[in-house]
Amino acid sequence: EDSEEGCEVNGRVYRDGEVFQPSCKLQCHCLDGGFTCVPLCQEDVRLPTPDCPYPRRVEVPGKCCPEWICEARDQRLLQDAGAVSPLLPYPCQEWGTEWSACSVTCGVGFSTRVSNQNRYCRLEAQRRLCMARPCPALPAASPAVS
User: Fold this and answer.
1) What is the reported pTM?
2) Least crowded by CB within 10 Å, which of 62, 99, 126, 133?
3) For domain 95-134, which CATH number applies: 3.30.70.2330, 3.40.50.1460, 2.20.100.10, 2.70.210.12?
């Protein structure tokens, strides 16, 4: 077959070297029978701030890329500690970055990520312990030489 001369994406064949957009959110490049794509929408992260304590990404009618909005939510909704998951006024679309590399090359350190996978569906920085590998034993102390 002519798979080396193009690539097939969603049932459509593109020529080798052709740049195409399978959706408004992606731009792709066909090369040697395969393809690579880059996002056209910003994949930025917005952490809570005093002027925007509940940022939320929403789809905007008529626009391709989602946008950040700030919500002012009733604090009483968030104070019910007995509930496993509060009734949010919108469906929570889980989102998060990958865990970072461990903060140390040996021994116990920490890894971080930004995620909304919590009971309030709110973006937050999260940390967890990690160990890349045990640290080598330190050599025995020797007397100082002057």
Assistant:
1) 0.42
2) 62
3) 2.20.100.10
